Amino acid sequence: MNAKNLFLFIVLVGSMEAMAKATRYRLVWNDDPSTTITIGWDQTGTDQHPKLWLSTNGVALRSPSVATASMHEVDRREQCKGMNNCFVRLKDLQPATRYYFCVEDAGGRDTIYHFKTAPADPTSRLSFIVGGDSRTFREPRRNGNLIVAKMRPDAVIFAGDMIDTGSDEEWINWMDDWQSTISPDHRMYPLVVARGNHERTNKEVHQLFDTPRRKVYYSLRFAGGLLQLYTLNTEIMRCGPQTWWLKKELKAKQDATWHIAQYHKPVRPHIARKREGKGQYRCWVPQFERHNVKLVIECDSHTHKITWPIVRDKNGQEGFTRNDARGITYIGEGCWGAPIQLNDDNKTWTRDSGAFNCVKWVTVAPKQIEVRTILFDNAQEVGQLYDENRFTPPANIRFRNYGNGDVAIIRQ
Residue 195: which residues within 8 A CB-CB, separation 6 or more? Predict the structure, then answer.
């Protein structure tokens, strides 16, 4: 089904009255992105026994039956932050395949949505929207969310601080705003989440996103080994068990083409009032350098930065020096709706920095990674991408110019 016909079909199906009391959807990748996905939602009605219907045929879900769709019970329920969070963990899916789903309860069936599993082929190309710190202002947060809907990424890599105080109201608002990431054809996009300092506990993140480890550090393998993504937790002890785990994971996954890490607090913040990440520098960076990590995603400072490739050097500024052959590129530092901070702590190895709302667009291919910074205040004007053209910048997109172009290319 081509993009135009798919859109028309979804609009027709979506126009039917949605009667199930399912809302505040979120998709999460916590296992193999090619064959699994977790679907979460807030079950707001009195029926506490909803079920989820799944099919590769969207038409089949208009009247689900055993012959045309599979039915899945809720795997996990968590009463958390004023929501009745239900999770269905789907397994044994086919790679690079579009799946349609709908939630059904005593009131009927909800809108039909769809997602696409990641490819399993290591010669594929992947697209990610990357960012964090959406905790304060809802208008820019929704603008950043709308960019997700427009850009149609494989997933969203979110490095923490979704909310501010962690109140029920804030989390409900965040989940409501997250629905802005749904494309007009009802396509949804999975999250890969890290914990920030405003997520008060590991338990909170685990209950809302069903993370695979309760301490919220884990790794995912994409596209048959094209990419290994490591999610770390700066809100617990960096050294010790977490570093031991990281070292073991990096050594075990060295066959991956690319290694990328994400976590919340930066090693070297680009605003002066922030503390330096001494634990990360001492315990994580040596492992990154030893095991060929090429890109690190950081947040927390509410400012934009991208470094040149850098390595540890006791004689370099703040312990780093530029090294284009062996270095790691660090990007960040979280501008998805939190108060923007002045970029007043640049280094000799800073490639670019600035103070504005933005997310990063990161594409991963066998021979190179490309990093662009999307200034999203004009999100409403940005064109809509589809599966067929999702690696082509859409109309009216605004990229940050790094001084020598709007794309940073990372090669092995």
Answer: 160, 202, 205, 216, 233, 234, 235, 264
Instruction: Identify whether 121 is part of a domain.
Output: no
| Mean of the per-residue pLDDT values of the chain | 94
Output the six-digit token pair for 28.
């999460």
* Number of structural domains the chain divides into: 2
Name 87's Cβ contacts closer than 8 Å, sequence gap at least 6. 38, 39, 40, 74, 75, 76, 77, 78, 210
What are the φ/ψ torsions at residue 146 (nearest 5 degrees)? -65, -35
Closest CA to 359 of 385, 338, 386, 383: 338
Please, what is the Cα angle at 384 between 146 and 192, to 5 degrees?
Answer: 45
Coil/strand/helix, residue 109? strand
Q: Which residues pair with 84 in a beta bridge?
A: 79
Whether the CB-CB separation of 267 and 277 falls below 8 Å is answered with yes
Sequence-separated (6 or more) residues with CB below 8 Å from residue 201:
none
Are 162 and 272 part of one and the same domain? yes
User: 68, 40, 39, 73: which is closest to 56 by C-alpha?
Assistant: 68
Distances (CA, A) of 320 to 5, 112, 285, 297: 52, 50, 11, 17
Of 116, 148, 177, the residue that ends a domain is 116
Amino acid at 117: T
Tell me the pLDDT tens digit for each residue of 113-161: 999 999 999 999 999 999 999 999 999 999 999 999 999 999 999 999 9
